[in-house]
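queue> holo job accepted (zinc ion)
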Amino acid sequence: MIVLYIIPVFGQDDWITFYEKSDYKATPDYKKTIAYFKKLASASLWIEYTTFGESPQGRDLPLVVMDKNGNFNPAAIKRSGNAILFVEAGIHPGEIEGKDAMMLLMRDMAIFKKDTALLDHVSIVFIPIFNVDGHERSGPYNRINQNGPENMGWRTTAQNLNLNRDFLKADAPEMQAWLKLFNDWLPDFFMDIHTTDGADYQYPLTYQMEVNGNMDPGLTQWAEEVYLPEMTEKMEDAGFPVFQYVAFRTWFDPTSGLRNGVAGPRYSQGYVALQNRPGILVETHMLKSYKVRVESTYELYRITLEILNQNHRELKKLNHEADKHAESETFLNKAFPLNYNRSDEDSIMVDFRGVDYEIKKSDLTGGNWFIYDSTKPKDYKLPYFYKMEVSDSAILPLAYVLPPEWLDVAERLKLHGIKYYRLKKDAGIKVESLTFNDPSWRNRPFEGRFMMNNIEFETTEKEVDYPEGSLVIPVSQRTSRIIAHIFEPRGEDSFVRWGFFNAIFEQKEYAETYVMEKEARKMIKENPEMKAEFERWKKDNPRLANNQWVQLNWFYARSPWWDEKMNVYPVGRIVDEAVIKDLRGVL
Ligand SMILES: [Zn+2]
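queue> job finished
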């Protein structure tokens, strides 16, 4: 069979991008962006244009795959031995240099045949615009702190969700599509391109990698000893000095010192780290020109390809080992870190290329007015607070059990690539069961949900009846870190904290006061100590003295009519190996 490829003929000028034509000041809209990538795909056998989902406003989510062997699906690329670089632009569409930079790089490689050796052992999977609806809410007044492009998109989706808070809870349809895509590809390295807010300084680009305890140790070491030193040096040589994502202890004030952090699972690079893959958050500096921001991003792409191309075997091996470790017993038997605090005690001095500034007392507001002078670069020696301490941790169970009715949770497990079994028939299972005390919630919505802000619970071991279809989720699998963050209540993004289980905290049956007046007396007669206990409770809660209903509800809660499932976490923890063995017959 003869396969005939018809490749349209284009002249050199046909490939000038919208950004270049605008004198490096503007970025193309959704339609023009897609048209350009489609044109690249039609002209090059190395590029495929496809889509991976649909936005709430009905736009396709674009995806571009680049591979020199013409392999465009994960299995074929993995078979070829190539490493997969997964790049995401436009999660915050006002911060869009990632899109324009990759347009140039793919063109330069595919059409102008520049640096093509960079693709010898690496394939690129690229999302040009992740938040497509936000990208089309375009205007000159979307980001007040930022220096161009002329029109830029809006931070959140059409549903007003910030996708970079949604990686674990996955409420946005865009995020659900992303998770499926990520798990289909399981890339080797991840990049997420943003533009900062914050203070002025010299670096055109800053970055964060998860090297402070939440990523696999082998990958952490590789990031610290291979990727970061080489990337930093090459960026410097290319004229784009970089620094880690700058956060001052006092937001605007460099002399307050720099601080480090761990990104939780709601953030892109934090999530990817928990999926046992190294990822880098890239933040170009909002006060630099759009041209400098695009060019530094282009350079970072090129340099990252260089490093991956050189180290593709080692990185793939480390990723594989990280997966194996995440499903191993050594992983299970250690306390799993859920949240971190920064230590304010240990710091080291580091060089920081800032700019000169003065602080004026504002006669308008009385506040401190930081006036930076970007024409006066100034090198500082600053204390850097680098040490992170684990503030919450949990010894993980062997498995979690989730009753089948929690459909939206089960759906999320699938999206995260988590494997589970279903009970083939009803079963009584010995589990650790958690009952929450004093639950309370934030009084304003956050990302469309009301989060819990007080997580306290008691643990009891008991046999619980689970119906057929219940999900048994073994922790020993490559996604063990994600599983722990979903189910361990104390995690900052746990599903109970996000409100997935809010309904369990509602009292659904009540006693009429005339019924309970009688019943309470009966209860006291049977158990005289109850009276003293009741009086103590009344003394501790004086504001309830005139609330007959609440007082009688106190008795109702101690009666056999009380809802025994109220405040009880529906997720059970199986900690006993023998229980798992017994389950084999019903899984
Ligand atoms: Zn951003």
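queue> The chain has a mean pLDDT of 95.
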